[in-house]
Prior knowledge:
By secondary structure, the chain is mainly alpha-helical. Helix content is 73%, strand content 0%. Helix 1 runs antiparallel to helix 2 and helix 1 runs antiparallel to helix 4.
Amino acid sequence: MLTREELLEMNKELQEKVAKEIENIKNGISGRHLYQLIQIQYELKKMQYFDCIDVIYPMIIVDSWDLTKPDNLRSQLMHFDYEYKKYLKELERQERKKNK
Length: 100
């Protein structure tokens, strides 16, 4: 499991990549949907404070991004979501154990 610091670093890197992709859309270089990336960016910002449990960006990716083509950003975002949720579950488990 990743540490809090590793998750924060991964989040920061993903925010930078998403911001770059948003710029690519504005410059006509990317074919992704601007509002989807803005939603992803918003959720990543909330996630850096570990107060965003129910994110929808994985559903956005699965429902509307082309999953047949290799996509580094997609893979990194999905991996981050997995690690983030795993971290939150561990925090919850520790809290329950502490309160017993």
